[in-house]
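Researcher: Good morning. I'm working through a list of sequences from a screen, and I'd like to move beyond sequence-only analysis. For each chain I'm collecting a predicted structure so we can compare shapes side by side. This is the next one on the list. No need for commentary yet; just the structure.
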Amino acid sequence: MYETIILGIACLSAPLFAKLAGYEIYKKPYDMVGVGGLFFLLGAAFTLGPSKVEFLQNIGSIGSVVSHVLGWLLVIIGSFRSAIDVIMEKEERHAIHHGLPRPRRAYKVPLKVNQ
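Model: Good morning. Structure tokens for this chain:
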């Protein structure tokens, strides 16, 4: 149960860590992972709350299973969507010269002089 709480907190903090890392893609996959974290925390709350009343135990066990299944589905779908965004991302390639001299031209271009 404590593992579920840690997993829920980690899923909720995924959008924050992605933003801090400077990783900018569409926001929706990270939101799905965050909502999955909310479902994990809801599942942990269902197991913590009702312990004495039999009717509430039945509702708690059903609610815990449903919220865990929804949490896992959202985490898996959000992970796949963010992976697809990374794969489909267009990369701009620029030549970066780190102190290397620029290559010289084999011929000289005459300068145009405005008269």
